[in-house]
Specification:
Blueprint: H1 3-21, E1 28-32, H2 36-48, E2 53-58, E3 63-64, H3 69-74, E4 83-84, H4 87-91, E5 95-98, E6 101-105, E7 110-113, E8 118-120, E9 123-126, E10 130-132, H5 140-143, H6 157-168, E11 174-179, H7 189-204, E12 209-214, H8 223-233, E13 238-241, E14 246-250, E15 255-258, E16 262-264, E17 267-270, E18 274-276, H9 278-282, E19 295-296, E20 301-302, E21 308-310, H10 325-343, E22 353-361, E23 367-377, E24 382-385, E25 391-392, H11 398-416
Parallel strand pairs: 1-2, 1-9, 2-5, 9-21, 11-12, 11-17, 12-13
Antiparallel strand pairs: 3-4, 6-7, 7-8, 10-18, 14-15, 15-16, 19-20, 22-23, 23-24, 23-25
Helix pairs in contact: 2-10, 2-11, 7-8
The protein binds flavin-adenine dinucleotide (FAD).
Length: 417
């Protein structure tokens, strides 16, 4: 352990010293996961009630954004542009502990860290994003060795590795992108990726092809706009095959096998089926299909374990609600507001509203969007889309391209600044 690690570990364990043996003097909220949901909740709790201690447990040193990461694959931006540090949260008084949460004891109200310490909480926020069910695709686990098959569905080293594979692929080669059955993280994300890779090929490898194997019966978001972009911008480059669920991969043959046939490629980008992040399994908060966590939308509190609030992709999405960064950010604010009320002995807002906007880059500059508004309905006891609110772009445009970049920089500042 070097000096820097030792200091960080000391900071973590000092939280524990008082935590496991006596009740902290102020209420303490522990947040697991410093992504779109968790970072937002941590910052807003501190802004709305600085008397609450907030400890954020995040395994990575920096935040790396999935939104905009498809542009890294095309070479239109880089990892530095989509990464941010956690100093902004520290300035709000959030105690950021770089470590892995390995277990939750809901009876004792403690979170165990990989380095062996326990942190006590009054309320716990869990926003771990997704993990993959690799076992659903035969051969995938073995194929991960040497990066033979990549998903790049968590922005980071796999994004860089996939970009390298695309650069190294010969002109005339085939890039295969496989999409799992919905629900998965970011409904329009794969179709945006197909556009970005096709745009890169159009400039750098004009004889190369993109084959999209979609387990779903049709494009799951902004279908007409994406299909128009494929026809008008990338004729002969993108081949879209619906109802093509990839059930196995063979890295030796460089093939993806669907239920009907086997498709050979030079780069295999297989996005596996997903579920709430591993810590949600360990915390016992998964309620649906062994995958997702059902919540009370007024407080984001788990329906399985009291005192634990679940945000972002890990939740069992309500009707019409996408698994998106924008939505996770909204979850974070609803949870922060509710926690401040609950900790201060007041009733939380009975009628929260959340909104979502997803921008997708269909070229290096042109963008399309989808937007929606969601409001809690007491009669139905869930959150539902507000009729007539939201919609999609009339057409792709460069103007929306500037909105797309502004959205990203603003939401990063909102959650981390
Ligand atoms: C290619 C792509 C493009 C996308 N584009 C968009 C877009 O344009 N707009 C949009 O709104 N959304 C987009 N998304 C979706 C968006 O990235 C996710 O919906 C969002 O990240 C969900 O937020 P979250 O807080 O649930 O999870 P995350 O943002 O993934 O955060 C989870 C955090 O928890 C940490 N963590 C997990 N487990 C532990 C543990 N046990 N201990 C410590 N730390 C832990 C992780 O390291 C991570 O930092 C895109 C996704 C992809 C893959």
């Amino acid at each position: 352990m070097n000096r820097r690690d030792l200091l960080k570990f000391a900071a973590a364990t000092s939280l524990v010293g008082c935590a496991t043996t006596s009740t902290p003097s102020k209420a303490r909220v522990v947040v697991i996961g410093g992504g779109y949901g968790g970072a937002t909740a941590a910052k807003y709790i501190r802004m709305w009630d600085p008397s609450i201690d907030v400890v954020l447990v995040e395994r990575d040193a920096n935040f790396v954004s999935c939104p905009i990461s498809n542009l890294v694959l095309a070479g239109y931006t880089n990892m530095q542009e989509i990464s941010r540090g956690y100093d902004g949260l520290r300035r709000h008084g959030v105690q950021v502990v770089q470590d892995e949460a390995t277990a939750v004891d809901a009876a004792k109200k403690t979170v165990r860290l990989a380095r062996g310490a326990d942190i006590a909480y009054e309320r716990l926020v869990v926003s771990p994003g997704i993990d993959f069910t690799f076992g659903d695709v035969a051969g995938y686990e073995a194929a991960q060795k040497d990066n033979a098959v990549l998903h790049a569905w968590k922005a980071g080293p796999q994004t860089v590795a996939l970009r390298r594979q695309l650069e190294q692929m010969a002109d005339g080669g085939v890039y295969i992108l496989s999409i799992p059955t919905a629900p998965y993280r970011c409904p329009p994300g794969p179709y945006e990726r197909a556009c970005q890779v096709a745009h890169y090929f159009k400039q750098a490898k004009p004889r190369a092809k993109v084959v999209v194997l979609d387990a779903n019966p049709d494009v799951t978001s902004k279908a007409a706009l994406f299909k128009r972009a494929w026809q008008e911008l990338y004729p002969g480059i993108i081949e879209y095959r619906p109802n093509s669920k990839v059930v196995a991969v063979d890295p030796n043959a460089m093939a993806a096998r669907t239920e009907f046939d086997s498709v050979k490629g030079d780069v295999l980008n297989v996005v596996p089926p997903q579920r709430a992040g591993d810590i949600a399994v360990k915390a016992g908060i998964i309620t649906h299909n062994n995958r997702w966590c059902d919540v009370d939308w007024r407080t984001m509190e788990s329906k399985a374990v009291k005192g634990i609030h679940v945000l972002g992709d890990a939740t069992l999405s309500a009707t019409g609600m996408p698994k998106s960064g924008h939505m996770a950010n909204a979850h974070g604010k609803v949870a922060a507001a509710a926690l401040v009320e609950l900790i201060n002995g007041r009733a939380p807002n009975p009628n929260p509203v959340m909104s979502n906007t997803c921008y997708s880059f269909v070229s290096d500059r042109e963008v399309i969007h989808v937007a929606s508004v969601h409001q809690y309905d007491a009669g139905l006891n869930t959150i539902i889309p507000v009729k007539g609110a939201g919609g999609v772009s009339a057409a792709r445009s460069e103007q929306e391209g500037t909105y797309g970049w502004s959205w990203a920089r603003n939401i990063w500042a909102d959650m981390l600044g």
